[in-house]
Amino acid sequence: MTARRLTGGPVAQRIRAEIDDNVSTLGRRGTVPGLAVVVATDNEATLWYVRSIARAADKAGVRCTVVDLGADAGEDEIASTLTLLSEDEEVHGIILQTPLPPGAAVDELVARISAAKDVDGANPLSLGRLTVGQPAFAPATARAVVEILEHYEVPLAGRHVSVVGRSAVVGKPLLQLLLQRDATVTVCHSRSRPLERYTSEAEVVVAAVGRPGLLTGAHVRSGAVVVDVGTNVLDSGDLVGDVEADSTAEVAAALTPVPGGVGTVTTALLLLHTTHAALQAGGETASVRMSGQGASA
C-alpha cells in the first residue's frame, strides 16, 4: 500500500478564495483588514515564519504590521504593546509570536489580546469559548487539521481519532474541534505508554509533538489516515515532521506531507480569521464562519 498524499495546497487555495471575497467586501466599505504580529525574539526560524506570513498577507490584500520589540523586550513592554493593538481600530487581528524572552509569561500576555482580534486562538477566553461550543477563533494549526480532513472527505463522525500531543496550540483545541464533529477522541502525551496501544486502534492519527520520527508504520493500523503536524529542522537543514513517512506510507491509506501539508493551511487560516474579525468589527456576522460550533451530546 502506498498512502495517498493529503497536500495542503488545494485546501489553502479554497481558503484564499474566501479571503479574496472577504477582502473585496471590506474594500467596498473602505476597510483594509489589518493583522499585527508581535515579535520579541531573534530566533531565525521564527523570523522566517513571520516573514512568510507577511508575504502571504501582502498577496491577499491584508495589511500586515510586524511589531519587532527585540529579543531583550521586557514583559511590561510586550503587554502594553498588545493592549495598544487591541485598542487600535485599524488592527483586526493580533498574533503574539513565540518564543518570548526569558521571564515573559506567555499565559498572562496572550490574555491581553482582545478576544475579537485573537485570530490564533491564544487567549484563554477564546479557548474557553471553543470548549463550550461558542463562537471563537480556534488556533489556526488545530483548525488546519480539521480543514484538511474535511476537504479530503475523511469521515469523522463516529470515528476514533488519536491525537498525539496535548499542547494548548494544537492538541487541546483540536480535541474540541473533533468532538464538535462527533469523533471519539483519544489524546496521548508523554505518559501514554506504550503509545502504539492507543494509536494503532485509531482510524485517524494526528501527530503534534515536535519530535522527528515519533510515529512509524508500527504505530498505525492498516488503512488509517495520518496527519503530521510536526515541523522539525534536522542538522542537515531538512524539514521533517513527527511521522517517519516511508514506513507509515506502507501501512496508512493517507498521509499529509511535511512540508506542504498542515503548515500551508495554517498560514491561510490566520489571514482568513483576520478578514472575519474585520467583518465582525463592521457589524457583519451572518456570513462569518467561526470555529466554535458545538454538538450537544
Give a quick rundown of the structure.
By secondary structure, the chain is of the alpha/beta class. The protein contains 10 helices and 11 strands.
Explain this structure:
The chain is of the alpha/beta class and 297 residues long. It folds into two domains: 89 residues, Rossmann fold, CATH 3.40.50.10860; 123 residues, 3-Layer(aba) Sandwich (Rossmann fold), CATH 3.40.50. It has ten helices and eleven strands. The strands form three sheets. A six-stranded parallel beta sheet has the order 1-11-8-7-5-6. Helix 2 links the parallel strand 2 and strand 3. The radius of gyration is 19 Å and the shape is globular. The chain starts with a strand and ends in a 16-residue tail after the last helix. The model has no long low-confidence stretch (mean pLDDT 94).
The CATH architecture classification of the largest domain is 3-Layer(aba) Sandwich
Give the amount of beta strand, in percent. 5-15%
What share of the residues lie within helices? 25-40%
What general outline do the C-alpha atoms trace? globular
Q: What's the CATH first level of the largest domain?
A: Alpha Beta
SSE pattern: EHEHEHEHHHEHEHEEEEHEH
Total domain modules: 2
Global Rg:
19 Å
Structural class: alpha/beta
Q: What order do the strands of the largest sheet run in, or round the barrel if closed? A: 1-11-8-7-5-6
The main β sheet shows up as:
6 strands, parallel
Multimerization status:
single chain
Number of strands: 11
**Would you tell me which CATH topology of the largest domain applies?**
Rossmann fold
Poorly predicted ranges: none
Number of helices: 10
**Annotated CATH homologous superfamily of the largest domain:** NAD(P)-binding Rossmann-like Domain
**N-to-C span:** 37 Å
